[in-house]
Amino acid sequence: MTTTIDLTPYAPPVPARVLTARSADGTELHVEVYGPDSAPGNAPDSAPGAAPAVVLAHGWTCSTAFWAAQIRALSADHRVIAYDQRGHGRTPASAACSADLLADDLEAVLTATLAPGEKAVIAGHSMGGMTIMAASARPAFRDHAAAVLLCSTGSSRLVAESTVVPIRAGRLRTWLTGHILGSRAPLGPVTPVARRILKYATMGAGSAPHMVEACARIVHACPRRVRHAWSNVLHLLDLDHAVRELRVPAAVIVGSADRMTPPVHSRRIAEALPQCVGLTELPGLGHMTPVEAPELVTGTIRDLVTTHIAMKEGA
């Protein structure tokens, strides 16, 4: 007997507008815009009363579909912009992969979707948070970022401090973790065994079946070559310097049971941020916090908009 899992909250919504943002190297990024005032350039300065903007950057092996719960909740009264990182979703892969290219891509999305000087709250999960850090000193980022949310992310030592392999920290664990996360093997179909493996590695023990199913479908859709190429970038990533350049209000969220980017990463980032407005550690949750705690993540984004965009516009 086949069990049907209701994925309604996590089913990808239909965007009001789809567009392409061209990055510095010519890569064409798939961008989706949701909510009122969905046309690019409908900024508060040019359209009084227009909805505030939120930009969402997903993580490694994911796509815009990862943000489905946030998009559904926020698009009623926000202009929500989500894009596929290069090689993910509907954005083609490129010959090169690097943190600098992630920053180029975010700048391209901001420039394509926001009017000059228009402010947005920018939220990033995992590699999306790393994208924000990589872009922290870029002109377009500084022009448009009112505040940021960093979910389940890290700035360095990602493989060495991962606890996906349940043995003592050291060279052996680092070697095993690197080979597992960087594997070229195809993930194959989403089977019960595949769900259990993904849940163990990326989610809390109490995650509901529909959450696990949604994440499994997204992750398994990522091409294995893309997964492998970006794993190499993450293995060598060092953005500690970039955290100190992130000069806008920044909230940080992490699950206490996150094996991919354990809380030590978020604590270190929070300490280094020039304007940390809060570190939230969620008991029992894993790496997929926007899926595992959708209301809390959405509420944090709303609070950042209210405090750092809406209040400033009303001043």
Automatic annotation (TrEMBL):
The keyword Transcription does not apply. Residues 54-297 form the AB hydrolase-1 domain. The keyword Acetylation does not apply. Keywords: Hydrolase. GO terms for molecular function: hydrolase activity. This is Alpha/beta fold hydrolase. InterPro entries: AB_hydrolase_1, AB_hydrolase_fold.
